[in-house]
Amino acid sequence: MAKFYINNKSGRCALSGQVEISGSKNAVLPILAAALLTDEGCEILDVPALRDVEVMCMLLRSMGAKVKEHYIINSVELDASDITSAEAPYGLVKKMRASILAMGPLLARTGKARIALPGGCAIGARPINLHLKGFRALGAKIKESGGFIEATAASGLSGANIYLDFPSVGATENIIMAAVMAKGPTVLENVAEEPEIVDLANFLNKMGARIKGAGTDTIKIEGVERLRGTKHTVIPDRIETGTYMLAAAITRSKVEIKNTVPDHVRPLIAKLKECGVGIEEVDDSLIVDATKGPLIPADIKTLPYPGFPTDLQPQFMAFLSTVKGDSAVIETVFEKRYRHVGELNRMGASIKAEGNVATIDGGKRLHGAQVLATDLRAGAALTLAALAAKGRTEISEIYHIERGYSDYIKKLRKLGVDIVKADDTPLAGRGAAAAAYGGEGL
Ligand code: EPZ
Description:
Blueprint: E1 2-8, E2 18-20, H1 25-34, E3 41-45, H2 51-62, E4 66-70, E5 75-79, E6 87-88, H3 90-95, H4 103-110, E7 112-116, H5 129-137, E8 141-145, E9 148-152, E10 161-163, H6 169-179, E11 185-189, H7 195-206, E12 210-212, E13 218-222, E14 231-233, H8 238-250, E15 254-258, H9 266-274, E16 278-282, E17 285-289, E18 300-301, H10 313-320, E19 325-330, H11 339-346, E20 351-354, E21 357-362, E22 366-367, E23 370-372, H12 376-387, E24 389-396, H13 399-404, H14 408-415, E25 418-423, H15 427-436
Parallel strand pairs: 2-15, 3-14, 6-7, 10-11, 18-19, 22-24, 23-24
Antiparallel strand pairs: 1-24, 1-25, 3-5, 4-5, 7-9, 8-9, 11-13, 12-13, 15-17, 16-17, 19-21, 20-21
Helix pairs in contact: 1-2, 1-7, 4-6, 5-6, 6-7, 8-10, 8-12, 10-12, 11-12
Bound molecules: ligand EPZ.
Ligand EPZ binds next to helix 1, helix 5, helix 6 and helix 12.
């Protein structure tokens, strides 16, 4: 299988220059699924070149949609005028759990959906009970059989009042997409407020939906008869933004990050400033300057938006392991998002995780090692640690990382990182390894 090799002779890879952020993975996936809601064409711009986007396009094609990916100009054209299947097969759901986001649109458009149960993943059990609670409230009949969830709404969906026990991002997105053409009004309470929800609602409203309150904890939807095609530009990826901000911080460098929405990374800006990192906002750029003075550690607790994002927890932990002093991380969103701790400790970090609390004895000199990317953001954290680790680091299972970071090697090299992707599979096995590509979607 392919690996990343990062060479770092000095023990701190000095970064410089600029990096351009791509469109948001977690915004584009529900938006692509939402194109199923109309029989007219849609064009999505600023689509990141990611494996997850490819898998979502494969899924939509398997349902009968015509999908044209133009990676040179980062756009995707979709035409779901003819839906021939309302099923998401296990083979695709296994590759990407966000396939579940097709369920709401299929129910709304065809009155039925049959989705392979996504199952758990490296960071948690990832149940879908809240998605199903919403669909039932809208009038769908749900049954589980043979590892599939089957939902039917023979007489269509009707608006309802739905309270989410937890502000789940996916459940909020799925229920919005199911409710936009339901008969009558829907009120969703205690919903997720992430920017990706707002981007989805903006896309749907351009299609003719009537959604109010996206970005707050209560969303009101007036069902409409039909939706029309539209064109939409995806918001920049706030987690990619945060990852490169932390690359500058962990290497004590000064880097300009372009095409960002500073408001979407407020918690990280605040935390890095608390640690002594300088951050300047200039239009849609963030200039991160970690070259001045010793940094100090800061504790973090992950929370649903607008709290500190769980998707930046592993990367921030890698940064804390290089800052002298004690710090703590509390993970409240996923129940086992600490598999990067053991890998970081193999690089010389001193981190103890007990339950959902990790304590970091920061400031140890990190050294290169052979490490394993256990999931997307853990893999990003190991890359950051390698930038501050003397010697060579070999990261395996990098398909996780390539699911969520576009042009990863190109962007890192442009900043000054000596990184190589090599496939050390014996030639005979190379084809098998490629075919075996899969991994779990998060
Ligand atoms: C989205 O996952 C993101 N993925 C995740 O990003 C992100 O970590 C997560 O939101 C939280 O911000 C995409 O948008 C494709 P949730 P999602 O439903 O929707 C529990 C990345 O690295 N829950 O908000 O699956 C669940 O177990 C990925 O880009 C239920 O209990 O997250 C978890 O503990 C990782 N029942 C918590 O809610 C449900 O029905 C948050 O999950 C649904 C969720």
